[in-house]
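REVIEWER CHECKLIST
Item 1: Sequence provided? yes
Item 2: Single chain? yes
Item 3: Sequence as submitted:
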Amino acid sequence: MSLLGIDVGTTGCKVIAFREDGDILAQAYGEYPLIHPQPGRSELDANVVWDNIATCIRQVAAQTHAEPIEAISVASQGEAVTPISANGEILANAVTTFDDRTAGICDELKGEITPLEVMRITGMPMSDIHTLPKLIWMQRHQPDIYRRVWKFLGFEDFVYFQLGMPPVVDYSLAARTMMFDIIDKSWSEKMLGLRNVDASLLPDTAPSGTIIGEVSPKVADELGLPRGVVGVTGGHDQPCGALGAGIIRSGEVMDATGTVECIAPAFNEPVINQEMSDGNFACYPHVVNGLYVTLGFVSSGGVVLRWYRDTFAQAEVAQAAAEGRDVYDMLLAEMPDAPAMAMLLPHFTGSGTPYLDLESKGAIVGLTLSTTRGELVKAILEGISYEIKQNLSMLQAAGVVINEVRAIGGGAKSEKWLQLKADMFGKKVVALDISEGVCLGTAILSGTAIGKYDSVEAAVEQLVTPREVYYPRKDVAAHYDEKLAAYAQIYQALRSLNYQL
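Item 4: Structure as written out by the authors:
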């Protein structure tokens, strides 16, 4: 028996089959291009996305005959939307999250509803990135297409539809549309009524971990799947990743370090207030029943360290290749233990939360002739971590409980970075041996739905194992608290200059 997890990202998809014990049985990856029909616009051809997913499913299914797939669940990027006709035709490309065609639409809506009202209904900060502004744009600029739409689908429900099942979206991904009432767990009449969006154009909704049907026999034969594979609702990719990291209790936080660094705290009751809205922090259903999550992120996380490697460390890259070592281990070995004198603002691709300022730029301040390469590397890790610390502090001030940080991703492999985070955050940091947290989260949902695990909690206990625990050192933590006050001034001090640049 195996469980199939599908992760539909912005530029690629992963398909992974897990054994019941959590071991990876087979996996495949497909990549598809973002389409930019004009500057600032960002689309995906849903046909190409599906072709990649289907190819990956075939590759994985071919390796699982001895342990056949029993259930499928899907995690997906948020906000993207594909219009589908009644006969299943894809009517236009999917408009992805950071497409600027919707700019200004939410400013119009503010004349009819306040951002705090929007957040109280949908849990979303009012933003043009969400699905509702995309539908409003289509009403105005592509009315012929809009009139032909049977359903507007995100990529989770789109995949189920392509597999021959009803297009059902889970609560976490539905929330990313800015049209879903996170309290009543239904499409919001108030939000849809702002521009007369008919609720019948949207898919049915269900909690994560709900069985919605079986893969059709025709599609199963085309993909090499056994008959009777069950489809189970998954979720938005970040909450699925949080489940894969074992975030199943209030006060636990996922910290995923990759190109972008993202935190996802979980909590029992919705936290919706002006502080959350001002900080651009969402509040929406977790894929774990009864919990909610929010997200904070640094747009340029580990990619800044990669920039340093590619720009300044070619000798180390060559040495690492020759000696069979990890180049990042070599670079981090040069870091001093004490906090760096220099500070780095990691806004190389704009800021993340709370500012969401795409015009902000990266900066290094406090350089002297005695600044070493090791101190620059330390400043990079500290700058990324200062950003996360600011997010954690703002969330705590808004009422989100934060007790423990669980680290996954590339950064979770570095003992030095994990200790730095524990010191700076003032929290216990737990390192996990989880390489594919998003797909593992979907496997936990589908495995629980078909009875392979007694509960989500039992599955996490069995499959998610801490590797190491790091505790804050009080003296270093106090030093970082002092330095944070200085770091917090850098963005505001450079904001005007960056806009001039």
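Item 5: Key structural point noted by reviewer: The two ends are 57 Å apart (CA to CA).
Item 6: Recommendation: ____
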